[in-house]
Design brief:
10 strands, globular, alpha/beta, D-Maltodextrin-Binding Protein, domain 2, 5-stranded mixed beta sheet, 3-stranded antiparallel beta sheet, 16% strand
Length: 333
């Protein structure tokens, strides 16, 4: 990250609490939330709730602390320096629960994980089975995540793994290369360079996982339950308005912080999120952020069956559905 970028992200975190229209400060409850990456459309609903004044409508004075490659917001949450965080996968939530870390999931914004594998169309690859035995570039965290599921379901082996560098350059230069990515970003960037991608969204092949998970300390649910619930409902409304209303407040806000975001990148990401129903698919139709014990049970079976997480009753402590209910914003039919 450039020095300029680091400075702008830091300033954005400070400015976030004053971005929405000011109203009676004394009546607002403070809440500090950490995302898992820099401001962008994939986190847009949180910034919509902030910039459009939705948090304040719910009586909250919210500061958003952006994540990034050198920032461990979940660790800051455990230490009590944040009130909530966005985590990437249910795997993290199960790991917290199995290790008795006092964190729990209170809402699941992404009903589908955006995780993909992508290859060149010119390579002749058409199915996930076609990737068996071929080198695949993945990040180290994936080795103990979806890679274990791929091994069990498709017979992949560890000798296929190559270290992923988070750089599209090598992929574009090698027509036989296969790598990980996110469906909202990488395929479009590849196509813009004149390469036709073949995209495998793992959720469409049975890899059942949430994304964009809102996580809080259990202590917060015990001592500030009303504040926590208002935060969840405001986030749900923010995401509904960002995806299906006027997203201008959020877009202007995170573009002012993250100068790598362009109108074209933003438009594509939002288009893919809608078309793939990443936010409003599955149980998200009942309210954005909704999750049920039944869905968590299914995800646990997927993860434990693949050896990604251990077996045990601990999995029920990974989530708490008590803050949801009729206060969630329902997406348009």
């Amino acid at each position: 990250m450039t020095t300029r970028m680091t400075r702008r992200v830091a300033l954005g975190a400070i400015a976030s609490s004053i971005a929405a229209p000011a109203i009676a400060q004394g009546a607002l409850d403070r809440f500090t939330f950490g995302t898992n990456w820099l401001p962008d459309p994939e986190r847009g609903g949180f910034y919509q709730a902030l910039a459009a004044g939705i948090f304040r409508k719910y009586g909250l004075d919210v500061t958003i602390q952006a994540g990034g490659p050198q920032i461990n917001n979940p660790q800051l949450l455990v230490a009590g320096r944040l009130d909530g965080v966005m985590i990437t996968s249910s795997i993290e939530a199960f790991n917290y629960a199995s290790n008795n870390v006092p964190l729990t999931t209170v809402a699941a914004i992404y009903q589908k994980s955006p995780q993909i594998l992508v290859a060149h169309a010119s390579s002749g690859v058409k199915t996930l089975e076609d990737l068996r035995g071929k080198p695949i570039w993945i990040a180290s965290l994936a080795r103990n995540g979806y890679w274990q599921w791929l091994k069990g379901k498709y017979g992949y082996t560890d000798d296929q793994i190559r270290p992923y560098t988070f750089n599209l350059g090598p992929f574009l230069a090698n027509s036989q290369m296969i790598q990980q990515g996110f469906v909202t970003f990488d395929p479009n960037q590849i196509a813009l360079q004149g390469v036709e991608p073949v995209v495998f969204l793992l959720a469409d092949y049975g890899f059942d996982d949430f994304g964009g998970i809102v996580c809080m300390r259990r202590e917060t649910l015990d001592t500030r339950r009303d504040v926590a619930q208002r935060f969840v409902h405001a986030v749900s409304e923010g995401w509904r308005d960002f995806m299906f209303g006027d997203p201008t407040p959020a877009i202007q806000h995170f573009k002012s912080i993250n100068d790598r975001q362009t109108d074209a990148i933003i438009a594509n990401s939002m288009k893919v999120m809608r078309e793939r129903e990443l936010i409003h698919g599955y149980e998200g139709r009942r309210g954005i952020g909704f999750m049920s014990e039944q869905r968590w049970a299914g995800i646990y079976e997927t993860m434990s069956g693949a050896g990604i997480v251990p077996r045990g009753d601990y999995w029920r402590n990974a989530f708490d559905t008590s803050l949801l209910g009729p206060g969630l914003a329902v997406p348009p039919a």
